[in-house]
Every structure is written in structure tokens, then in C-alpha cells.
Queue: 4 jobs
Job 1
Amino acid sequence: MFKFDPFSPEVDANPFPFYQVLRDEHPLFWSEEANMWVLSRYEDIVTALNDWETYSSAQGNLMTELPNRAGATLGTTDPPRHDRLRALIQKAVTKRALDHVMEPARQAAKAHLQAVADKDQFDFVSEFSARYTLDLIVYLFALPAEDQEIVRQKAVLMVQSDPETRTKGPEHLAAYEWMVDYTDKLVAKRKQNPGEDLLSGFITSEIDGEKLLDREIQLTVTTLIMAGIESLSGYMTMLMKNITDHPEARDALVADPSKIPAAIEESLRFNTSAQRFRRCVQKEVTLHGQTMKPGDFVCLAYGSGNRDERQFPNPDVYDVSRNPKGHLGFGGGVHACLGTAIARLACKVAVEEVLTQFPNIGAVDQDLRWMPSSTFRSPLSLLVSTR
Ligand code: HEM
């Protein structure tokens, strides 16, 4: 009998054959192991994303949710509360705030690559993507230098879950509590001494006399640190995996760097880190002959929708000139990723710098170990060759 367990090592190793069976034979599937429905076809996922009244985020959007997050921040609220929060936050994420961080981030990327320039191989995760994305978050929020390493460690732990119990273990919960406490103190300090950073932008952001509450700022910063460090670093690693697994794509990007933005979009479609998020059904929905009841959770398998042949011709081919409009790499609907501009820019700078320094960068045979998470899929390390 067919099983789909988003926590299983088989799914971690290669989810795509599972997705194929889901789309073709069980387009609405009840996963006993995950205790939720799974939607896997592109069209069904898009329908769900555009109907937040039926498919609510207010009970949490992570496959294994953190305590006190549901109903409290962007990814875990429905309109109208969500829209008000999003507008206030969006107002602070200006082009100026991004321009401010990209030049120092590029210099940091160069320095990390310079540090491994003499090596034949290096670990793309620990020696590049984890460091560079941390730099970015540090610049965005003006985090004090002495806090950086501990913030990174806690952010990485927060997004993980215990694969045995399928819940957050004590170490994950403790990391989350640490982060909530840390951001609480940071907000208080920054209120006394505001600057040009994004956190200061959240404090001053105002629409029609309304401002973000301290608790909202604190949870938003916690979420953004998590998204910035883990989603971005995980995705950047998957992007580099896609490029190094396809040397012809790498050569095309080296020959013509103007193709890099299209390669970033194709990687978000082809093999991305943010594989699945969840929603909670609010009214009875009958689909493909089965009925979901109010209160049921449903997994939106973005990674599967992105490989749906009903939407993308030859979906299993990584084609950097494809320009896959409407891919689900950043989700969609009211909850579409808020960090798209930062993410795209950060990845563009990273790929430009990596390919300038290492035009022959290549994959090294390795038994990849994946981060224990049912939402995100990214390797804990990725060895690459430099020549
Ligand atoms: C390439 C890296 C990234 C990927 C692949 C990614 C992917 C996603 C996806 C798929 C969602 C939708 C979640 C859902 O459907 O429930 C999302 C939401 C979100 N992302 Fe990202 N993300 C990335 C980077 C970032 C960054 C750098 C930030 C901010 C610093 C960010 C902030 C957010 C926020 C705040 C939301 C919730 C938006 C809302 O609910 O209105 N993301 N992201």
C-alpha cells in the first residue's frame, strides 16, 4: 500500500517519485503518518492558496508548528489581521533597506570564498551559505557582533524537529524560547536607540496612525531570523546543488551571468528547500472523491506542484532558460513569501561571486544527510570541488 510520510528518510532522500504517485493516483491523499491530507497537483494547491477562508493559516503553517506562533505572526494569521500586519511590515522592507545591506553582504561573500580559495573541496553549507546568510540577517537587523554565533545556532535548532516523535523536542523548544526572549530584549534596546536597520523600520512603521505592537515586532523578527537564516541558507544550498549537479547549466551561467536570475527561478521550481507547508480546513471540501472536514490539516506540497506535468512541460528537466512563471517556490496567495526581493538579490550576489571565484565548481559524490524537518528539505552539508 502506498505511504507518504514527509518525515521518512526515503522521502528526504528523494521526494519526487512519491510526488509523482500522489499526483497521478492520490491527488487528495490521507497520510496516516503525518495525520493530515496532502494536496500535490499544481492547480489544487493554487486553488487552496487563493482561498484562505477555506484553507486557514491561523493554526500554523509549518508542518510541525512551534508553540505560541499560531495566530500571532504573518505566516500564522488570516486576513484581516494578516493584511494589517503585512502592510505595516512591508512598509519597512523598502528598496533602501535592501540597498543598505547588499554591498556589505557581497564583500562578506567574497571574503568567505577567499578563505576557501586554496582548497580542492569545501563544504558549501558550513563554509559559505550558513555564514553568508547570517551576515545578511546581521546587516538587516543590525545584530551586535557578539550575538551572531549564538543567534545562528538557535535559529538552526528552531526549525528542526525530532524525526522520532514528529514534534519539537526540548532542545528545539528551548532554542525557540531563547530566540523569543532575545528578540524581546533587542526590540526594547532598539526603541531606545533606533537606526537605519529593518527592526528600527518595524518600530517606526505606521499606517493611518496604527503601528505594530511590541509583541508583533518581536514575533516577526523571530520569524524573519528563522526565514532569513534557514530558508535562505537552505535554498542557496539547494541552488548550488542544482547548478553543480548540472555542469552544462553551470557553464551557461559562467558564459553569460545575465542568466543567473532565471536559474534562481528554475531552481525554486525544480528542487527547492521549502517543500511543504500546511493549512487547516475551515469548511467541508470534497475533492477527487474524498471529503476533508473542518479542523483537518492539509499539506500543500509545493515541491510536487512545481513538478506537475499538467503545468510545466518536462518538469523533471532542470532548464535554466525555462523562466517558470507561477512556480510555487515562494508559495502564493496572501501568504506568498515576503522576503522574495531579499532572497532573489542575495542568491544572485552569491551565485555571481561563487562562479567568479570557482567557474569549475562541481558536485562531489556524497551520501547527503538532510536536515530533520518535514517542512524544509536541505542537506546538512554539501561538499563541492573547486577546480
Ligand atoms: C530563497 C529563500 C526563501 C524561500 C524559498 C522562501 C519560501 C517561502 C514560502 C514557500 C512561503 C509561504 C509559506 C506558506 O505558504 O505558508 C514563505 C513565506 C514567508 N517568507 Fe519566505 N522564503 C525565503 C526567504 C525568505 C526571507 C529571506 C525572508 C525574510 C527575511 C522571508 C520571509 C517570509 C515571511 C515573513 C513569510 C510569511 C508571509 C505571509 O504569511 O504573509 N522568506 N517563504
Note: Residues 88 and 210 are 9 Å apart (CA to CA).
Job 2
Amino acid sequence: MSTEAYRIEPAAPHDFALIDAIEKVAFGAASWGSGDVAQTARIDGVSTLLARGETSHDVSGFLLWRMAGEDAEILTIGVLPTDRRKGIGAALVRKCLDACEIAGARRLILEVAADNRSALALYHSLGFEEFAHRPRYYRNGADALLMARGLHPGA
Ligand SMILES: CC(C)(COP(=O)(O)OP(=O)(O)OC[C@H]1O[C@@H](n2cnc3c(N)ncnc32)[C@H](O)[C@@H]1OP(=O)(O)O)[C@@H](O)C(=O)NCCC(=O)NCCS
């Protein structure tokens, strides 16, 4: 079994195409579509984190976030299916929480499909709580949940 350690770091523009490819594999039929994540990563104000193997330097996961008024929001997060349940998703969200606190955000918010059990388990394990419910929000008819975790800007 691999014991590779992962480093969470900002992405460089030359990583954006790779993030796009990982998103496609991570989300499957629910992928945003070719080029869309790379395009979003290039938008002013959008920050991007990567999980990179310390030894292999392979990228296994990514997260995009941005400030939205007093809140920060996770736009998308994905981990390759072969690298799941190794703590990479949690490490990405923790790094994002730190960055959002430094940026002065009061909360970190996100939207998740109500039937996405792994993502919900991840967010609950990190202290996120549901604050709104959007029935039949997605194309496949699934409900969306809005979740938030309070931050301590400047603490
Ligand atoms: C959601 C996702 C990012 C989680 O990434 P991950 O690297 O596997 O998550 P972690 O290994 O850091 O998991 C941290 C904790 O979350 C919970 N968790 C994560 N996946 C879980 C699963 N399939 N079942 C139950 N709990 C799960 C567990 O509490 C886990 O801790 P543990 O392994 O010590 O029990 C990954 O499953 C993914 O890319 N899914 C497809 C894309 C997606 O749905 N993104 C979210 C959109 S809102």
C-alpha cells in the first residue's frame, strides 16, 4: 500500500489543464465540461489549491475557491477516485479554511448535492452545517444543500 504524503499548494497557470482533466475523472457525468474548470481558475479572484505527492509530484486533487462579500466559497473540489479516503479532500478543505481566514472571510460556504454522501461526510467531519436547501436544484433532479463553517478572521 502506498504511503505517499501530499503537499497542498497553490496551482500555477500551467497546472490548469491538468486540473481540468482531474475534474473530468473525479466528477464523471457531473463534470462541468471540457475546459470549464481551467477557465474558472483563470478568473480574477479565484484561488486554486492542488494536492501533490511529495515523492511522485503527481497531482491527485484540487480545490477552487473565491471571496464572495464577507464569505468565501468553495467553487469545486475533486480527488481522483484511486486516491480517495487518504485524507486529501480534508487536507484541501483545511488549507482553504486557513487561506479564507487570512483573507478575512467570516464563513466558508459551499453547495453540495443532497445525495453526495462522500462529500457530505467530508464536510460534516470538518464542522460544516447546512443552512439552506434548494429542492430539485440540479439537472438530475437532486436537491442542493448550502453549507457553512464559521471562521475567525484575524484570530
Ligand atoms: C468528496 C471528495 C472530494 C472526498 O475526497 P477524499 O480525499 O476521498 O476525502 P478524505 O479522504 O479527506 O475524507 C475525509 C473524511 O470525509 C469522510 N468521507 C470521505 N469520503 C467518504 C465516503 N465515501 N464515505 C464515508 N465517509 C467519507 C470521512 O469522514 C473521511 O475520513 P476517514 O477516511 O478518516 O473516515 C471525493 O470523494 C470526490 O472527489 N468526489 C467526487 C467529486 C465531488 O463530489 N466533489 C464534491 C462536490 S460538492
Note: Residues 26-27, 77-79, 84-90, 112, 116-119, 121-122, 125 surround coenzyme A (CB under 6 Å).
Job 3
Amino acid sequence: MSSDRLFPDQWSPSLRATAHAWAQLVAPLSCAGCGAPDISPCPTCCVTLLRSVPRVVHHPLHVPVIAATAYAGPARRLVLMHKDRGRTSLATPLGAALGAAVRSVVARVDSAVPAVQLVPVPSRRMNLVRRGRSTVAELAQAACRELGNGSTVESVLRVGQPLRDQVGLNADQRQRNLAGAFAASRPDHQAAPSKVPVVVVDDIVTTGATVAEAVRALEAGGYWVLGVAAVCGPRRR
Ligand SMILES: [Zn+2]
């Protein structure tokens, strides 16, 4: 049985099963994390992802940055398959891991906070066009479902200037590339940023330069930023 939503919901179970069998002949389905056949992600990869303990990523920011797991092994492959290969069904397990990281941020700062607004780090315009979707916003929506406490997604960050690709830049160069890159707008339905605290969310945090710019822009826009949560952080050394 496949957990990938390959076929329309209105198809009958037998039609879906037949179509699945045909699809398997053409392009065998395998776990995006470990390559196990027939199901993606496989239960082992889901359990590994969900059992990982969120940890603080070291960075020079004044708010906590917490990643659900390290950018390695099955977690890394699941993130990449979701991001670049259009495996949208992976948003559910990855979003659950992100939700755990969000919970950890809230617990560290002020555990009395009932609900938060998750603000996705915006994608470069080129990536949005290429992928046709905001993959971080998808993860944020799934994280809200996992949190189940009335938390919402507010995509209030915009890219204010064209960004160079960050790949190959060191931490200092990234920081200079990103200075002033983001701007925070007000939520569509509100006159001013509400008093609900926000948590910046991203799929992968490496040097922390991107999330630092996101925090700067939100605070400049009057938002109360509790911290940053990501699915993957740097590998442990
Ligand atoms: Zn697997």
C-alpha cells in the first residue's frame, strides 16, 4: 500500500489499486528516506524522524534556534525528496518533526504561550517558480496540524531584493548577501502585527544567516519572535 497520494481521492479502491500496480511497473515506488520498496516514507524512516529529540543549534542569535534532527541520513533524503522531487505527501512526517521543534522553542522561552504563528522563511523567487509551490509553507501547515493548538501559518515575510544563490558562500558572505533581504508585511486581515508570538520556520538551517535575517525583519516589523524551528540542523561533530 502506498502512502503517496498518487491518484485522485474519488477513484474507487480497486481502480486505485490497479493504477498503483501499473505505476509500480513504470516507476517502482520506494521509500524516499532509505529506498525500502512499496511505501514512502517507510514506517522505519517515519519513526526515526519522529523519535529524534529536537536540539539547539549554536548560532549568534538572541533567540533559540532548534532543529528536529540533523541534516543527514534518511531525514536529509526525505527533505530533499519533498523539496525538489515534489513528494508532497512527505510534508506530513516532516511537518510533525517541525512541530516538535516548534514545541521545543516555545517550552524554552515561555511555555505558557498557547498558540503561535509560524512564519515560513521565504523562498527565492526562482525556486518558487521552478517548484510551483512554497515547500516551507507546506511544512509549516503540516506542523500546525501536528501542534493542534490553534497555531496558524502567516506568510508575512517577503524577499525585498533579489538574492544570490547561497551555495558556496561562507558564513560572513551569506550574512552580507542577506543583509536587508527580507521585509515583514502585516497579516492580510490585521491592521498591525498581533500580540501572538511568532516562530520562524525553515526546512534546513546551516549557518543560521537566513533565519537571522528573517528574525531581524520580523522584529523590525513589530513582531514578537520567540525563536526559530527547523526540520534539519547541522550534523553533530
Ligand atoms: Zn525508509
Note: The first helix runs from residue 13 to 26.
Job 4
Amino acid sequence: MSEGSGRVEIQSETDVLQTRQQARDAAEQVGFDTTDITRIVTAVSELARNIHLYAGEGTMEWKHITDDDRTGLTVIFEDQGPGIDDPDAALEGEFSTSDGLGRGLSGTQTLMDDMEIDTEQGEGTTITITKWHS
Ligand SMILES: Nc1ncnc2c1ncn2[C@@H]1O[C@H](COP(=O)(O)OP(=O)(O)OP(=O)(O)O)[C@@H](O)[C@H]1O
Ligand SMILES: [Mg+2]
């Protein structure tokens, strides 16, 4: 697998589709199977949609990763929006400020191997997700 990385500016609905396409291509390059590719694209779709809905705009950056005996994919979502009120409750799937189900973040955590939320009221949100190729 070649080392790679990429970046998408999220400002419109079209950009959300672009994040899905880039994440799919990046996941295919790692060699993930169809099930894992679907998991990754679904997770990316949720986080990109959240940026579009709640922060207005932001960025997605992906990079291929390696450790001693594995390869994988990390995707970082960053925005300067309002921040998430209660990230712990959001991860429990019990918190929504829209008419959504409030399942986006909790679902994303289930689909990925690792997820980190760094959020500050009025400052913005950074969410990092990782999946390893076993
Ligand atoms: N990037 C973000 N910036 C600010 N708030 C956010 C961001 N992402 C999520 N949130 C907040 O966290 C809540 C939970 O997000 P989550 O994606 O889990 O559910 P939802 O978007 O409300 O509904 P669903 O994704 O199921 O349609 C949102 O309602 C919103 O208040
Ligand atoms: Mg959501």
C-alpha cells in the first residue's frame, strides 16, 4: 500500500458527497473488504453531515497509517463551529439538538476501531476516527 493522505473542504452538500468518495477511494487503497469500506463510508458520511449541519463548514483530512504489522486509515474532521454541548451523552446516543435520531456519533463509534472527540464550547470540534486492516 502506498502512503497517502488527502483533504476535503466541507462547505456544501456536494462536499459531503466528496468526503464519501475520497474516503471510499482511500479505504480501497488500504485493501479493506466491502463490509469495512461500507462502515468507513457510513461513519465519514455522519461526521461530514454533522459539520455541514451544526458547524456550517469545516474540513476532512484522511491519511493511511501503519504500525509494526498493520495498515489502516485515520480520518480527522475539524470545524470552528459551536462545539458539542454534551459529548458524553452524544456518544451514548442520547443527545440531539436537531430532529435527527441522535445516533450519528454513537453509531460512528461502533463502526470504527477508535474515535476521539475534542470539543470546546464556542471554539469548535475535532473528531478523529481510525480503522485498522486486520
Ligand atoms: N460538529 C459538530 N459541531 C457542533 N455540534 C455537533 C457537531 N456534531 C454533532 N453535534 C451535536 O451533537 C448532537 C448529536 O450528534 P449525532 O450525529 O449523534 O446526532 P444527530 O445529528 O442529532 O442525529 P442523527 O445523526 O442521528 O441524524 C447533535 O444534535 C449536535 O447538537
Ligand atoms: Mg448527526
Note: The domain at 5-133 is CATH 3.30.565.10 (Heat Shock Protein 90).
